[in-house]
Amino acid sequence: MAEQIFYDHSSDLSHKAKWYAGRVAVYGILIFWTVVCLFPIYWTVTTSFKLAPNVMQGHMIPFVDFWPAWKGWDSLGLSPRLAGQESTVREEFLKRFTNSAITSVSASVLAVVLGSLAAYGLSRFRYKFGFMRNPDISFFFLSQLILPPVVLALPFLVLYRSLDLLDTRIGLILLYTLTVLPIVIWIMRDQFQSIPVELEEAALVDGLSIWQAFLTIVMPIALPGMVAAFILSLVLTWNEYFFAALLTSTDAKTLPVMVASQTGSQGINWWAMAALSTAAIVPLIIIGVVLERFIIKGMAAGAVK
Amino acid sequence: MSQGDLLHVVTGDDIGERRRFIGKALIWGSFAVVVAAFSWCALAQTGYLAWELANWRPALYAYLLWATCLCIAQVVLHGEQGKRTLFVLPATLFVVAMVIFPLIFALTLAFSNWNLSAFEGPRFNGFDNVRQMWTDPFYWNALKNMVYYTLAILVEYSIAFGLALIMASQIRARKFFRVAFLMPLMLSPVAVSWMVGKSMLEIRFGPISRLARWLGWDRPSFFGDPEIARLTIMIMDAWTFIPFMMIMLLAGLQAIPRDIQEAARVDGASGWRSFWEVTFPLMLPVSLTAILIRIIFKLKLADIIINVTSGGPGGATDSVTSFIFREYRDRSNVGYGTLLAIVYLVLIVVAITVFMKAVDRWMNPRY
After folding, report:
1. Which one, A143, A302, B216, B294, has least CB within 10 Å?
2. Cβ separation of A285 and B183 shorter than 8 Å?
3. Which chain B residues are closer than 8 Å to A115 by Cβ?
């Protein structure tokens, strides 16, 4: 074996050691934060398969520490054992789930339609409604973000009562649309401003009307932005609790309200609550994993100009 | 707010006398229907008409009719120009109906005493609510808490900035970490308040309590002491929203051209100095946007508090929203709650305007 002739200088080696130390620190922080982010989810999902002794002895890892049981899911009627049977709890859960799905999807669709149209108009034409010009109209829409929901909550309670819209999905959909509309307009305005005007000019020269140009030329290009706005609205409306707690009671109650109403009454019945929480967060976790790139695009839209 | 390129199109519309008349007739005709529907409802409600009316729905339908007619009339009256108005008009009408009208209604509500569960209707009581607010220690306490909660954003911001810097550097498995870090934002605050607040922080069996005991805290209690309770709520809220700031900051970091940082390195700046003198100043606009949006979201903070502590112990964790929610739940008096909410709104608008003006001064100093 030949003798080594060239040696790294000791200062170079210390540099290398420093680099390794930096890497270890960076990945250490990343892994620590991953644990911080994911542990509560892991805890909830595993707890839904635990029995009382497992909870009390603090068992963490399924199949090693404890043997998973379906007790928590039984209490929701969602376990394989109860799959074929009638179950009132399951019906209750599914009803809340459908309410949540219908309200959040329709509110998001409505907000994306209204918001994209407004954002397109504001990014392309010059308006004058009385004293309001384009920047004023934009500000009028975006300033809705500042409005805390609590200001509208009690007046809406009274108004909805006299309009007979309390405890209906329509009422909730309208309010949710309002809460996400400024965010949609924010994202979409950014999106439309990045599309060159020459496209529409060419389309108009070719004889399309402005609405045809919008629907056939601009919209397909802006579709990723619309999806981003839609997903972000969906997340916000699915999780909304405050209005739903105030304005719904039996018919239109959504999933978060159901989760909240169980927390007090069930006491230490952890497996059932864990199962319910898991069922409430699973749809969004799936959306988050699959459509992560759209969510990030939506949130980054306003940040970078 | 910057303006994109505007689309300039010259249109020649020939709008005759007759068409103009039809347009005007549409607007004013449907407006008359609205007025008629409103007065009909009002009369029926107060009982001047023999006929009982269950609700105000006719007025709502009349408004919808008027909104539709107004949209149609734009095209009839202004031709091509009107078709452009149609892009913005529906959203405007929607927001006006859902915000401006309820806000005006809220103003009348704020100066009355109206117990929803009682049989009698609203009773105007002048400035009684204001006087009550002035002497309500819990409301001022909630406002004070909001200041603390808002100040916590600075800590959240530093953590988010640190994470964003790491995410923007060269690391492996970036996509995995991005998805993992995004997760807390996807969870509903209600689920979080059970998952973290009620079960993981449970004193006897919760994993965090176990950890705290193992670390030497004899009797961990996260909601007993006012200061600690507030801190716990802050941490739970930070947990859900740090990803949000991190993603905005990450987008900002990725938009900085690489050659600027390379130039700084060639000039001999150390990592620390190139951060403070190059990266951080370049990130200021994005940072301020992120902080402003975060403040706006923070001011709505309520779900976690309502579900975990419901304001306790002794109002130490109350936010304004959760306090008003509880106030309504306990006494079902909409008048007082509305007044508190409106005062809150005024304070927010003033504070945010001052904040934005200060930022503007600071970013574009005039010498």
Report:
1. B216
2. yes
3. 91
From chain B, the residues in CB contact with A134 under 8 A are 3
pLDDT tens for each residue of A27-79: 999 999 999 999 999 988 888 888 877 777 777 787 877 788 887 788 777 77
Classify the C-alpha dihedral A295-A299-A304-B3 as positive or negative.
positive
Domain limit, last residue, from A63, A82, A101: A82
What is the CATH class of B136-363? Answer: mainly alpha
Same domain as A252, residue A182: yes
Rounded Cα distance between B346 and B364, Å, is 27
Chain A CA closest to residue B59: A163
Tell whether ipTM is more than 0.85: yes
* Whether residue A142 sits in one domain with residue A207: yes
Please report which confidence band the pLDDT of residue B51 belongs to, taking 50, 70 and 90 as the band edges.
low
Instruction: Report the DSSP pairing between strands A132-133 and B112-113.
Output: unpaired
Domain end point (choices A82, A98, A128): A82
Q: How many domains does chain A have?
A: 2
Q: Which residues of A touch B193 (CB under 8 A)?
A: 260, 263
Distance, CA of A81 to CA of A85 (rounded, Å): 8
Using the structure block, give the residue that is written with the tokens 């308006």: A127
Span B286-308, pLDDT tens digits: 898 889 889 989 998 888 898 88
DSSP letter, residue B124: E
